[in-house]
Each structure stands twice: as C-alpha cells, then as structure tokens.
Amino acid sequence: MTVVRNEDFQKKFRYHHGHLRESLLAAALDILDSEGSANLSLRQLAKATGVSQAAPYTYFNDKDELLAAVAQTGFEQLRVQIFENVKTAATVQQKVERLMTSYINFAIERRQLFQLMFGRELSDLKKHPTLAATHGKFFAQISGYLKGRREGAEDANFLTVTLWGLCQGLASLLSENKLKTTDVGASSVEEFVKRTVALLSAQLS
User: Fold this and answer.
1) 14 pLDDT exceeds 70?
2) Which residues contact 101 (CB under 8 A, 6 or more apart)?
3) Which domains, and CATH codes, for the chain?
4) Measured between alpha carbons, how far is 40 from 61 in angstroms, rounded to an integer?
5) According to the 3-state scheme, what is the secondary structure of the chain?
6) Are 88 and 48 in contact, with CB atoms under 8 Å apart?
7) Which of 55, 73, 180, 189 has the fewest CB atoms within 10 Å distance of its CB?
8) pLDDT of residue 201
9) Does the pLDDT of residue 127 top 50, yes or no?
10) Cα distances (angstroms) measured from residue 59 to each of 27, 67, 68, 119
C-alpha cells in the first residue's frame, strides 16, 4: 500500500488550488539559502514542491525568469522589513539609522538572496521589467525617509543615491566577512550604524 505523507498531500493541495507559484518561490528561496543560485533549477523546484517537471514552466520560461522572480521577492521582503523597523522612528536621522540597520542585517542573514538581488546575474534590468519596477519602488522608499529635512540641505535625489550606495557597500563588506564591526570598535551592527549616520547628521537634520 502506498502511504501518502502529509507534506506530499499539502503540496498537491496547494497546486490544485492555484498556489503553485508561491510554493515554487518559497522552495526556490530555501534552495538558494542552502545551496546558492548555481544549484537552483526548475527541475529541483518541481521535485521540492511535488509537481511534474513541466509544471514550473507555467510560470517561468527559464532559470533567468525564476531568478528574477526570486530577487523580486527578496526586494519585497526587504522593503517590508525596513518599513516595520522604521515606521515608529520620530526623526529623519532615526529613520536612516533603522533603514541602514535593517538593510545590513538582511544582507548578513540572507546572504545568498542579497547577492542575487544585487549581483551580475540580473544586472541587465531591461530584460526584467517587473524587477526594474521593484528597484524603482525601493529607491522611492529610501527617498521617502529623507523627507522633512531642513531647507537648503543636499539635493534629495543625490542624498538618496549616496545613502543607498553606503548601505550597499557596508552590507556587502559585512555580509561577506570582509569587515567586522569590531574592526572599527563597534560591538554591533546597530552601534556601527549609529556612528556612521552621525557623520551624515548635518544633512539629515
């Protein structure tokens, strides 16, 4: 007698009720975190979600489309994480501190996903318009946290680019262990960020 495991039943249930794409992306994130993008394939996703090898192609024509969708999911998760941490901040400086802390912690905790989101594999955004739109929303989110500064402060667009570049650089260095907060006398990411943002305080007041 064939025994149907509960997890197999759940996979089939999700598939027949129109949740396959979400299941595929969840499985892709798990594989990415544990094995990296080089070992992520549509065939693996089919096996992980208990569907036929042809089923993932309903949503993704090839691996590039899959990676773009996974990266987009990553941006959405990062946006939500930043929003939840920033929403109670009272000042622009506090918002920037929490933004940077969230950004860096995400990079450290989800290193493989972070590398995919900003890596060479998806650098040509013209091929992935939906992902490009997500990039734009993320930029707008960062820019929004800079509202309320004094008149005469640095151009908001320039400051947004500078802040994003700073976040990206520090996140990459720390997540790849090329830099440790203790190297500069900081006991945590939070302390490291506070000291960094203090250097920009004149433009954030």
Assistant:
1) no
2) 85, 189, 190, 193
3) 1-60 (1.10.10), 70-204 (1.10.357.10)
4) 14
5) CCCCCHHHHHHHHHHHCCCHHHHHHHHHHHHHHHHCHHHCCHHHHHHHHCCCCCHHHHCCCCHHHHHHHHHHHHHHHHHHHHHHHHCCCCCHHHHHHHHHHHHHHHHHHCHHHHHHHHCHHHCCHHHCHHHHHHHHHHHHHHHHCCCCCCCCCCCHHHHHHHHHHHHHHHHHHHHCCCCCHHHHCCCCHHHHHHHHHHCCHHHHC
6) no
7) 180
8) 79
9) yes
10) 14, 12, 12, 23
Handedness of CA 180, 140, 65, 12 (dihedral sign): positive
The whole-angstrom separation of Cα 43 and Cα 137 is 32
The confidence band for 150, taking pLDDT boundaries of 50, 70 and 90, is: low
CB atoms within 10 A of CB 160: 19
Q: Contact, 202 vs 92, CB < 8 A?
A: no
Distances in Å between the Cα of 167 and the Cα atoms of 86, 127, 133 are 15, 25, 20
Contacts of 40-43 with C-beta under 8 Å, sequence gap 24+, read 40/66, 40/67, 40/70, 42/66
